Amino acid sequence: MVVQSQDLRPGMTVEIDNNIFVVIEYNHIKMARGGAVIRVKMKNIRNGATIEKTFKSGEKIKRAQIDRKQMQFLYADDEVAHFMDQENYTQIGIDLKTMGDSIKYLKDGDVVQVTFYEEESLGVDLPAAVPLKVTDTPPGIKGNTVSGGSKDATMETGIVVKVPLFINNGDKIKVDTRTGKYLERV
Question: Which pTM value belongs to this model?
Answer without folding.
Answer: 0.74
